[in-house]
Amino acid sequence: MVIEIQNSKFKIKNEKEEKIEKDIRISIRDLNIWYANTRAVKDVSLDIEKNKVTAIIGPSGCGKSTLIRAVNRMNDIIPGVKVKGEILLDGENIYDEDVDVVTIRRMVGMVFQRSNPFPKSIFENVAYGLKINGFLRKKEIAERIEQSLKDAALWDEVKDRLGDSALDLSGGQQQRLCIARALAVEPEVVLFDEPCSALDPVATARIEELIQELKEKYTIVIVTHNMQQAARISDFCAFLMLGELIEFDKTDKIFTTPSKKVTEDYITGRFG
Amino acid sequence: MGKPIRCFMKRTRKENLIRRLFCLFSLFSIVFLLGIVIVLFKEGLPIFKVISFGKFFFGKFWYPVYEPPDFGILPLLLGSLWVTAGALIIAVPLGVASAVYISEVAHPKIKGFIKPAIELLAGVPSVVYGFFGMVVVAPLVQEFFGLPVGLNALTAAILLGVMAIPTITSISEDAISSVPKSFKEASYALGANRWETTVKVTVPSAAGGISTAIILGMGRAIGETMTVLMVAGGAAVIPRSFFQPVRTMTATIAAEMGETVVGSEHFHALFAIALVLFALTLSLNIGADVLTQKFRKRLR
Q1: Chain A nearest C-alpha distance from B99 (Å)
Q2: What range does the domain containing B244 cover?
Q3: Which of A74, A178, A182 is nearest residue B188 as measured by Cβ atoms?
Q4: Is residue A201 part of a domain?
Q5: How far off is chain B from A114, nearest CA to CA, in Å?
């Protein structure tokens, strides 16, 4: 009996917190995405909260990468992709006709599955985004580069060799450089598309730690096929299967008491 | 028991024979190359018994049939360099721009038409270029610039430029389209548009391949013979402007080899010119190779 009472108290407290803290940054509404004739994302609606980490999990080919790439309109560059529905970023639909895609991508940064630094120096890699976005004063660029390398926990390792080629860095360092590059243009949201899938466990742990720190300043969405990773770092978790959103809730709830059988089967490793 | 073993022996002997035969075929071109190099040195070096290195390379006059003869190749060397430089000034922008257009901008349908068309340029025989140059380009150049003759360095440079375009375009295009898609994605994700991505990410990432293309195009221009023989004007004087008739090293060999006495000084001098040409193109090829290797390492 005592346990029950404690539980219900806990529940009430939780609900209160939810109401106060709910601050939605991105709102996906009835999103459908087609590749030619294949429907990769089906009627997905979900809200992404500010300064939280939202993970998207699901078996391979479930449309999770397609979904995350819709949030900064990266699917635009793939020929034959059709998008229907809305994604509201701070209340504005990013798929409206008069929206400038450059602005969207500046506000919503992205880190990719495989680290992809340009074959330029470390400095030039981080400076690139600043230069194309009209930052010209050298002092300002240098300051921003230092700040974003610090935010990406890479500054101490590279501060004495900013002129070296980015390709001389290790895989984990390259991925953190890509994070720094994305942070340099001061986005509000950062999307991570399986950022650790090509990294060893140590490098993965560093990136995970970094993501935890980054949510203080940014709203984060991460796609991962690693469920432990989703459980470790995310506050909310969306489970996608065959393009459909099966379940979306707080991460603790998804991993302890999922409301759907299929979610439970997936997270307990019965398939996937 | 003995039989299968003998059978096996027979098979290996046959395979060995085939292996050696193919090895021989592939050695054939190397033997040929060696033969060429040996003959070049054997026939080219004797000229330096008659004339010093300095006088050969820096002598200002090429009068091989005068008495006494002058074997200074400076006018020919400069003629080749002027015409090649002019050709590159024309071919590099056009060739690289076409490569960028084909790989980054053109609709697949247009690409399917324009790429083979440019490569077809490489298949036109050089004598046809020369003929076209004499009949069409030279009169146009003459009229446009108001010159006494149309057969000059500029006309040769224009034609060699056009001839080098396919080399430059097709190698640059390969280099540009093999730039990983992930570089472009990273650029787009930072808010760059297509133009910025192409100019600041894609083309610089392909720089190694593009330089290789330019060097190979240069090799094509410097070694070209028939066209320059027909349109460059043929005057063995140190060029002072693009509107002057010039004579290249290749054209000199082609024009004079048939009329010279085998074993004469003139004969050896022509071989020495061939040696210079060989050294030039060899170093260009090595340079291109080094750049390609470096580029591959960078993109590993």
Answers
A1: 20
A2: 56-299
A3: A74
A4: yes
A5: 8
Do B298 and A72 make contact, defined as CB atoms within 8 angstroms? no
CA distance A33 to A64: 11
Closest C-alpha to A41, from A239, A243, A223, A238? A243
DSSP A243: T
The mean pLDDT of chain A is 88
CB–CB of A214/A190 below 8 Å? yes
Q: Which helix (H) or strand (E) holds A178?
A: helix A171-184
The whole domain housing A246 covers 23-267
d(CA A224, CA B69): 81
- Helix, strand, coil shares of chain B as percentages rounded to 5? 80, 0, 20
A10 in any annotated domain: no
The answer to whether B186 contacts chain A (CB < 8 Å) is yes
Looking at the complex, report in whole angstroms how far the Cα of residue B206 sits from the nearest Cα belonging to chain A: 10
* Contact indicator for A39, A209 with CB cutoff of 8 Å: no
Rounded-to-integer distance, Cα A75 and Cα A82, Å: 9
In this structure, what are the phi and psi dihedrals at residue A30, rounded to the nearest 5 degrees? 45, 50
Query: Mutual orientation of helices B265-299 and B207-223 as an angle, nearest 10°?
Result: 170
What CATH number is attached to the domain comprising A151?
3.40.50.300
Total structural domains within chain A: 1
What does the pLDDT read at residue A20? 47
Scanning every residue of chain A, which has its alpha carbon at the shortest distance from the alpha carbon of B185?
A74
CB pairs under 8 A between A and B: 68
CA B199 centroid distance within chain: 27
Task: Enter the ipTM.
Answer: 0.85
What confidence tens digit (pLDDT) does each residue in A100-136 have? 988 899 999 999 998 899 999 999 999 999 998 887 7
Q: How many CB atoms lie within 10 A of CB B14?
A: 10
Rg (CA), chain B: 25
Q: How far apart are CA B129 and CA B286, in angstroms?
A: 28
pLDDT digits (tens, 9 = 90+) for A80-110: 899 999 999 988 899 998 899 888 999 999 9
How far is it, in rounded angstroms, from Cα B250 to Cα B81? Answer: 12
> What's the whole-model pTM score?
0.80
Answer yes or no: do B205 and A118 touch at CB < 8 A. yes
Token pair in block for residue A209: 């730690």
